[in-house]
Amino acid sequence: MNRVAVVGLGYAGLTLAVALARKGVTVFGYDRDPGVVAALATGRPHLFEPGIEEGLREVLGDRLSVAAELSREPVDAAVLCVSTPVNSETHQPELENLRAAARRVAETCAPDTLVVVRSTVPVGATRRVVLPELLGRWPRARLAFCPERTIQGQALRELEELPQVVGGLDRESREAAAALFARLTPRVVPVSSLEAAEMIKLINNCHTDLIYAFGNEVALMAERFGLDPLELVHAANIDYPRPDLSRPGFVGGSCLSKDPYLLLGSSRSAGYDPWLVEQARGLNEHLPIHVARRFLDLLRETRGEPAGSRILLLGFAYKGAPPTDDMRGAPVLAMLEVFRTAPLTLLGHDYLVAPEVLKRLGVTPCRPEEGFAGSDGVLIITNHPEYAKLDLPRLLASLRRPALIYDCWRILDEEGVRAAGQIRYAGIGYG
Ligand SMILES: NC(=O)c1ccc[n+]([C@@H]2O[C@H](COP(=O)([O-])OP(=O)(O)OC[C@H]3O[C@@H](n4cnc5c(N)ncnc54)[C@H](O)[C@@H]3O)[C@@H](O)[C@H]2O)c1
Fold first, then answer.
1. Best mutation site among 81, 108, 117, 121 for ligand 1, i.e. most ligand atoms within 8 A of its Cβ?
2. Predicted TM-score (pTM) above 0.85
3. Chain-centre distance of CA 293, in angstroms?
């Protein structure tokens, strides 16, 4: 496994391509988006991921090439890392990218090439969508599903540390895929089928969704009881030998906002309607809406009518830690739907999302200091580590009075906020 094509050079494909090239594999990267390829070819990644720019520069033109066409150079394996979104209205999976990528590999590569699906797919999709494209042109196929399970922001490290689950069409495919990933990670976990590997990826993410959803449900109940959800969660977890409760927080990103729908759809097609998966997703999708409504209610209580208020929104990426520029499934998107119903002046800031993106959302981009000055309310949406390091006394002094600080992740010093006078402090399910 010395020569590998990587199809789709987004978050999953680019990190894999760089990581493999660094391990001495010759990698032919292919993306159908010429803009992506043009940026990468000059050594400038089109996305944020710690270490990716340095990694790209290290291997580009040497063991890694990128092109807007799939290379005709012979390869041992082709890894499909294309996007597999769900329809925003129906939540049905859209697998055309995957089908097209498989077709392109079948047209371009030799029939003994190992094809690895790395995109997240509904259970059964590798066999149903990819295999027929290969067998349409090849007498036989070597096919595996090897899920990408890294977290954005630590992907390069995790690619080398996380165990790699590997499922194959047959034993030969599985062993070939295991040999490929053994170049990257010390632990490969072979499983019995393509479908088992597909489902493992989905249950990992749905479990995460579920765990966080319960923390969020605790917060929503605590709000009604007038209790502090963080106090409850912390105290409940101290030296308690059963699974930890999660603290409340938003659950977004391209994977968690989509994968539960992939599992729901697959499971329903197989005749089982899951009880938990849909409820957890629904609750996590409701949370940003709840927070935005609550923010407006608290603003009303604090200042009278929120209309005309100047509001600062901090954190537009889907998460703050580890930092990312990715806005897929970002809580701010659902919040803006609520805020647009009130005549507010919206200012916004993110350390990694470009100011032009904020402008397109109808928000005036600014630095945190500019945003605090003269604002009536501040909503801190992500836990980007830099927000906890802001010069709080100076910023708070510049707010109008009375003011509201809604600190979703409770990263500010609450006492410090209260000490600044005439500022109401709140968080998810709190205050
Ligand atoms: N982002 C992550 O950290 C992550 C983690 C786990 C799993 N995944 C899965 O990996 C897959 C890719 O996710 P991503 O975040 O990298 O998406 P992305 O949108 O960042 O990148 C996908 C890339 O594929 C390219 N592409 C689409 N169809 C193509 C085709 N037919 N031929 C060539 N290129 C094509 C697109 O132009 C794009 O650059 C998805 O299935 C996702 O669920 C992603």
1. 81
2. yes
3. 24
